[in-house]
Amino acid sequence: MNAMHVTSQRKDIYEAVQSVGRAVSGRSTLPILSHILAQPQGDGSIKLTATDLEMWMECTLPARLQASLDADEGTQGFTVPARVFAEILAALPETDVLLERNVGDNKIHLRCARSDYNILGLPAEEFPAPPDVTPTASFALPGQLLKDMIRHVLFAVSTDETRPILTGVLLAFTGDSLKLVATDTHRLAVRTEKIAGEGSATAIIPARAMNELIRLAGDDDTVTVSLAQGQARFEVDKTTMTTRLLEGQFPNYERVIPTSFDRRLTLETEAFQQAVKRASIVARDNAHRVVLETEGAQLALSAESGTIGSVRDEIEVAREGDDITIAFNAKYMNDVLSIVETEGVALELTEPLRPGILRPIGDNATDYLCVLMPMQVI
Amino acid sequence: MMSNANMSPSWWLHLDMNAYFAACEQQYREELRGRPVGIVPVISENTGFIAASYEAKCFGIKTGTRIAEARRLCPDIRIVEARPRLYRETHFAIISAVEKVAPVHEVLSVDEMVIRPWKNESQLSEALRLGQKVQDAIRYDVGEWLSCSVGFGPSPFLAKVASDLQKPRGLSVVSPEDLPNKLYGLKLTDWPGIGKRMEARFHATGVFTSEEMYQLTMPAMRRIFGGIVGERWYRLIHGERVAMPPVKRWQIGHSNVLAPEFRTRNGAWSVACRLLEKAAERLRDDGYHCCRLSVSVEGLSRSRETGEENSWTKRVKFAPTNRTLTLLPTLRSLWQDDIAKPIQVSIALQDIIPDRDVTLSLFDDPSEDRIETTVDSINRKMGRGTVTIAAALCSKDYLDHARIPFGPPHPLPSGRPE
After folding, report:
1. Regarding beta strands B78-81 and B37-40, do their DSSP bridges make them parallel or antiparallel, or are they unpaired?
2. Residue numbers in A near B333 (CB within 8 A)
3. DSSP alpha helix (H) spans, chain A
4. CB distance from B325 to chain A under 8 Å?
């Protein structure tokens, strides 16, 4: 007797499997974590869930569902190995896919056109339950804005395994504004936006979850964010991502943001970025060091390498304050310049070995800053 | 324009101390003179010799011979535990003696150095006289049991080759006119830089003797060595002075085969802490930061009763640092206490980058830098390890005196410009 009988479009199932599959654990010692859980929902749809115990991905997809009411097993759903399931779905023709699970075993019968598969699953009750998220703060924002905010800070996240707290993005919500902060201690990116919502909370979201969110959220989607003790949940259309938060104290980033400056260089973003790129061809052989030197209305970018040679490039600059010679890591500069969308940027400086701030300026300038630590000028 | 006939040939001298560690012991312990002596890093039946006196070599005993084998070859052999501090002190005394008669150009190791004669001693006869003077200076100023071989060549490389031609107390010349016939008698592995693996590569191309090696063209040599190194080798053996590419340092490390009293979990941990402290101190002294720490511990072979692993290696990457106080918690996080009888501990600070190439941290606490700088300056003034981390205290004396200085002893006498 069939405990469950699901019919859905191949494309719908495949997209959902690909979506939740990002949370499937690749190296876990628990076999169930390499599986996707499929559970029937009251409205006839079906929910797919995958987890590596750090992140849960759930996706609901339209289906024609028949679950046997006299069999408890029917409501628990079934599990299928994620990799094999995705592979099969990718190879099937574009038509309805029928999934059946019999009472008493964990075998899944998949039928599509003239193909028949019997896939061995694991008991659905072994699948770990998603964490209970009781929000202390929640808000919603457009997908495009959230992705934009994440991109503005994600490049600054650290990969230092000895300081795990810096491998995430600080998300601070005050009830009427949202702030995203990331730092690898050499640079600090802060993006703020006015967003209304309920409650207030701070959370450190792993960089991996932030990357998933960029992939998950469409520009026109609305993303609902719920922050809770130890967990954060992001709901986008029919997909929900829940992630564990990084535990620990994020460094006091506000104290390293310079509150004043002696010099301010105003530059055309595109020209500045291209000049940095040109200089970095030589600089990459010498710790990415690019020296910036102002001379009147000109900014010279130079780099030297013992094996390649040297480069000097000039662009126009509007300068406030005295001339300055300062060196930055070209890679760090390029990272931030490549995500600034305004026509102009301002580089606020004090001394050659003190941090500088790069901000977008112009009509569409957002509340964003990136603090960059300089290198020694040699 | 000066004619070639008037140009002074350029000679290099390579000084190689004979059976150095054993000779030091014979110099300072009269009862060992004239007797077969083997030097071991620690007194243990499982170890091998790190040096053997010429009297021991007569019995077929050499560096690497195990103690049991040595006893079989020569029942009267005297086995002596190494005294690294003595060898270091003697090394500096030798340099002082040599410098009285000739400029030391470069110290290659504790028992090898390159000497560049002054311009007025650049004729071969004068250079040979200088070599004799160097040998005499060491004998009179440092000790009559300390002998050396001096090689003369048109390049430092051929001078080194020449120094190996006659031992002990040799004065050997490889002149441009001697090339290549004089070196045909060398086995391939007699050449400095050709080991068993390289020898096998030569064999694979049908080259078995030095004479056959000299017949190779530069492109053939490039093929055997797999690139530019072959071209460099070709030039070296033909007497050219080749500028060696700067060696890119990528790690600073220390390793220690534990003395029996330190073969415990606590002992190994203490040694690891001291090794880390010393490596970090060298890192700062040499002007570097590191981005990776690698730790490994080896134990005696796997226990049959407990089945415990006999070795482990762990490494972790992090933001550039040169601070002992930052590295210590990282070492703690990597450390495993699961080897009951550890015998060797190794620490390596890897992915090192010059201080000037480090982008400083926005969050650095300058007071921590001051702590490290102050400790370093106290240790420089009062002696290494005067201020040390508590965990390293019990291994400090053992480690600071136990390291056998195979390389150039620290601090290095600076090289002279040509």
Report:
1. parallel
2. 162
3. 10-21, 72-76, 82-91, 143-154, 207-216, 269-283, 330-337
4. no
For residue A13, give the amino acid letter: I
Residue type, B328: L
DSSP per residue over B190-255, as a string? GSTT--HHHHHHHHHTT--SHHHHHH--HHHHHHHHTSHHHHHHHHHHTT--PPPPPP---EEEEE
| CATH value at residue A344 | 3.10.150.10
Q: Which domain holds residue A168?
A: 137-254
User: What domain count does chain A have?
Assistant: 3
Using 50, 70 and 90 to split pLDDT, how confident is the model at B1?
A: very low
B386 close contact with A: CB closer than 8 A: no
Contact at CB, B330 and A162, closer than 8 angstroms:
yes
Contact B318 A162 (CB under 8 A): yes
pLDDT per residue as tens digits for the range B40-77: 887 777 788 989 999 999 999 988 899 889 999 999 99
What does the pLDDT look like over A21-52, one tens digit per residue? 999 977 778 899 999 999 988 888 899 999 99
Residues A148 and A202 in one domain: yes
pLDDT per residue as tens digits for the range B305-323: 555 568 899 999 998 999 9
Closest in A184, A355, A375 to B319, CB measured: A184
Q: How sure is the predictor about A105, in pLDDT bands with cuts at 50, 70 and 90?
A: confident
Among A74, A104, A126, where does a domain finish? Answer: A126
